Amino acid sequence: MYKKITAGIIEEIKKIMGEKNIVAEKERLENYSHDEFALKSLRKYPEIVVKPEETRQVAELLRLAGKESFPVVARGGGTGLCGGCVPSFGGVVLSMENMNRIVDIDTGNLMAEMEAGVSLKDFYAAIKGHKLFFPPHPGEESATVGGVIATNAGGSRAVKYGTVRNFARALEVVLPDGSITILGGRILKDSSGYSLMHLMIGSEGTLGVITKATLSMMPAPASTLTLIIPFDSIFDAFRSVPSMLVSGVLPLALEFIGRQVISVSEDYLGKDWPVRQGEFFLMIILEGEENELLSTSERISEISMKHNAIDVFVAQAQEKQEEILAIRSLVYEALKSRTVEILDIVLPRSRMEEHIRYVEELSERYSMWLPTYGHAADGNLHTHIMKTDREGKEISGWKGIYPEVRREIHLDAKKRGGKVSGEHGIGLAKKEYLGLFTDEPALRMMKEIKRVFDPKNILNPGKIF
């Protein structure tokens, strides 16, 4: 189906990229054979890695790939969780790490233009001095702008501001035939034909390679406040959330997490969660004027106590707030060595409690630890299918149990009106379940769109479908 990367093709690539921007040594290719998916089963080595410095080089490479029939997989920070940037057919990994320049911070239009390889960490730092704010926070700040757009990343702040899709205003994209197009612009409204830009967002590098992006920003909030609310029952915690939202509280983030998971993250980071009471927690981040925050936090406290909260802890110091967020954000890293797979199911908010009850039943039935946490106000749940018990001892026979537990969790989510992925994407790991959650006409249209954009199937083949 695809040609191997021959010595002749490598010479052509060197002419395009320059020898310094090519990686071909086996030991150096290891870093480009995987993302952050826990198991090694999805890993696949590329034949060569190239690191373009400008859009023209990307275009020339894709023209060569079409002519010579070899696959190309674009890669950002490699922080994905479902094998989306794994080169399953070998070929070329197109690493965007050298295209890492912030082109313009446009304070007049509250937009920033940058290359696809800019990390979120560098982007956040660059706009902080302008007192600007980019709300999406997928968690891992080494993720790149191109990568989070290609997966339509979400994170904890999606409840108030939505996912990355809500902030993408323009994309420079190289299509599979090597042509370059600009989609969108420094505008807030656009009804000019089909929204091709939004088709690219979340397409996981299967329709085109994003080389530049313009993202909208907001003025930085005057103040932030983080609340930790402990409960003895996760279901009491869940039942308090609709009451908060109906009361007019719209937090920046509203997370739920259990004591057992927090303890693992505490040990991993060497940091202490500020609340010792309770088995389950809501973590709520508020933004706005200080007086407004105090008033809102009082309203949240009243509602929480009516739903059997034990107490309400308020963190005002920025350092303490950052420490709390770090413990929550790095839960996956803390659990990764013991995890088989982290799921990314999203449900109607009102069905979350039922689904978690079902997951608890599965945990008992299969004697498998299935810690679940996530975004309480947007319905996105992350269940870890674990190969160890709570104490870290390996579960006997987990390899046989894992597929059945995974299947049952997805079937239950489907029954409750859910979807397979809220923010991680499909990649390799989740593609067997896309058809379960997507009807045949929609799936057929998706495949037709792929064929129209990429008739030779050279861009990130084997993903999503």
Describe the overall structure:
This protein is an alpha+beta fold and 465 residues long. It has four domains: 7-97, Uridine Diphospho-n-acetylenolpyruvylglucosamine Reductase, domain 2 (2-Layer Sandwich); 102-219, Uridine Diphospho-n-acetylenolpyruvylglucosamine Reductase, domain 3 (2-Layer Sandwich), CATH 3.30.465.10; 223-329, Alpha-Beta Plaits (2-Layer Sandwich); 333-427, Alpha-Beta Plaits (2-Layer Sandwich). It has helices at 7-17, 26-29, 55-68, 120-128, 145-150, 158-161, 196-200, 234-246, 259-269, 290-306, 318-329, 331-335, 352-366, 398-415, 431-437, 440-453, and strands at 22-23, 48-50, 72-75, 92-95, 102-106, 111-115, 132-133, 168-174, 180-184, 209-216, 218-219, 223-231, 253-258, 280-288, 313-315, 339-342, 372-375, 380-386. The protein has a seven-stranded antiparallel beta sheet, sandwiched between helices. β17 and β18 form a beta hairpin. α1 (7-17) runs antiparallel to α3, α8 (234-246) crosses α10 (290-306) and α13 packs antiparallel against α14 (398-415). The longest helix is centred in the C-terminal third of the chain and has 18 residues, at 398-415. The chain is globular and about 70 Å long. The protein starts with 6 loop residues before the first helix and ends in a 12-residue tail after the last helix. 46% of the residues are buried.
